[in-house]
Amino acid sequence: MMAAVAGVDGCRTGWVVARDGCADVVATFAAVLDRLPPDAVVAIDIPIGLPRNYAPGGRECDRLARRLLGRLRGSSVFPAPPRSALGARNLPTARDRGWPATLQGLNILPKIEEVDSVMSPSLQRCVFEAHPELAFFELNGRPLATTKHDREGRRERWGLLAGAGIGRPERPRQGETEDDVLDACAAMWIGRRIADDRAIRVPACPAHDDRGLRMEIWR
What we know:
alpha/beta, 5-stranded mixed β-sheet, globular
């Protein structure tokens, strides 16, 4: 029997969790894990494993994922922060700590910290970093020309997921956007590939951070 699979994406009020045609919003990542079976495969759209120092372009997995997605969608993979930047809440502080952060990156930093506080090398046996645009890259055979930020792009992405057996769930409407649900469902598709031993790790031989966490993205 295949393990339970969940796709997870951050939203304003917590985390969207997509499972088998349904989606829920859960307040914390720790609560997400508590609600799932201990052997569930969880694919989450958040950086796991943080470098000691920032390098241009971020981690190797960030750079390789951006290269796969090319000029069309590569900008959707933002460089993960170095561990020294954790706790920064404004751009000057982040930059003083060695991270040339954008406002988008800074806004997601609390989510990165939340996941990092829970993660361990042993937990990486069931919790995997994924990226939605890499799911759509695989489903489409090439990077999508559309963006998820308009109706046409969302329609195209839902169609690709439907063709792969991932139905569009009813939105819980608890502070999430349609984009959040879409990304959680794309992560769930990658989770299914991981559970089926069909997913591809980027890079094939990842480096580990100072806490022993693998720095990798699955597709």
